[in-house]
Amino acid sequence: MNSGLCLRVLILVALTVPIRAAQPAPVTFTLTVPDGPTSTLSGSSVSLLCEVSPLFNAEPLEVRWYRSSNFHSPALLYKDHKIQEAPVDPQYRGRVSLTGGLERGNVSLRLERVTQEDRGEYICQVTSDQWYEKASVFLTVNVTGSEPVLSVAEGRGGGGQVNVTCSSVGWSPQPKLTWRNKDGTEIRNGQEVLNTSDPQGLVSVSSWLLYAPSYSNWLSCTVSLSEEAKREGRILPHIYTAPTAVPGVSKEAFIVTLVLLVLFLVIGALCSVILCKRRGSMWSSSQKSRNRSETKNLIEGAENTVPKPTEQMVTGKEVNLAGKVIG
């Protein structure tokens, strides 16, 4: 008895669900869309939500998704129970579809491979034989920009402070820039932030901060759209301070003094080389003169030691050239 009753209930449910799904569209209806904009990252996929209300089978209806100024060339056109190939905006061909669930009143649009050009207003329009309704969905495309570039320059006015700069490009929409110390505490005072946009709508952000350098305290600059889309750079400001700076001496005077010192050393080295060459030349000439004098003296001494050919000594007596003994 109980099994038979359960079977009847199951059959009744199976019969009533298709009947409810196949209910005709009411004379009037509205569309339900998100209150705020829909955000996604560049290169990802996104669903633009749109449902008929009250919920009913929307398969017999016409569903048109288009940009606000492009009604006749929509991103997607569903008509006669199928998605039409034309007319469709070429930039969306192969990238759009309905998420499914038309029989439940879900007419949401699925957009693949989102680009920066896809951002903006989309209009969801649903038309029956007796009624039509439309609603707007706004799409924002988040583009994560470049890694922050940090640099340090000498701070004006002295006081031991340096000017730390952070810049990053290629963001959409406008990002948030945050300075933090090594403890993670946000630095709110003494900073300036500047945002500019290029023709493509991408935002460049830059900021500068006066900071007292330290050998252990680093700074971080974070540029972000959300916790998932952010870039961070860090720097140790003390590395960039001038270690050769002399207290009380201006940077220009120090550079001039350094240049003059180098010039003096170069001139001194050249003078030393020239003096050494001159001394070497004088020593060489003196040595040559001395060698000539010594050679001459040696020759003269040798001539004085050789006996004259007109005189010979024979057993202690003088003999002339004829061999006669004199005396």
Automatic annotation (TrEMBL):
Domain of life of the source: Eukaryota
Example GO BP: T cell receptor signaling pathway
UniProt KW Disulfide bond keyword: yes
Domain Ig-like, chain residue ranges per copy: 26-144, 148-237
Membrane-spanning segments: 253-276
Keyword vocabulary terms for this entry: Disulfide bond, Glycoprotein, Immunoglobulin domain, Membrane, Signal, Transmembrane, Transmembrane helix
GO cellular component, one term: external side of plasma membrane
Subcellular location: Membrane
GO molecular function annotation: signaling receptor binding
Signal peptide span: 1-21
Pfam families: C2-set_3, V-set
InterPro entries per the UniProt record, alphabetical: BTN3A2-like_Ig-C (IPR053896), Ig-like_dom (IPR007110), Ig-like_dom_sf (IPR036179), Ig-like_fold (IPR013783), Ig_sub (IPR003599), Ig_V-set (IPR013106), IgSF_BTN/MOG (IPR050504)
Keyword Lipid metabolism: no
Segments for region (Disordered): 286-306
Designated name of the protein: Ig-like domain-containing protein
Annotated organism of origin: Coregonus suidteri
